[in-house]
Amino acid sequence: MAQNIKDSQAKNKVSGMVFGKINYQLMIASIIVILIGFILMSGTTDIYSFTKITLAPIVVIAGFALGFVAILKKPKRD
User: Which of 12, 46, 63, 74 could link 34 by a cystine bridge, Cβ 3.0 to 4.6 Å?
Assistant: First the structure.
C-alpha cells in the first residue's frame, strides 16, 4: 500500500516548464500584436481616421485573443 502511494506521488511530480515552447512563442507574438495595435492608435493628428477608430482596436483585440490561445493551448507531452 505504501509503495503504491510513493509511485503515484512520483508520477504526479512533473519537472519542467508549465508551458511548452509554442505557448511562449504565441505569447510573445500576442504581445507584439498588441503593441502594434497601440502604436496604430497613437498620435494626435486626424483622430477620427479609419486606422485609429477601427483598425487599431481590432488589432489589439486580436492580440489579446492570441494571448488567450497561447495560455489555453495544451503543450505536446512526449
Answer: 63
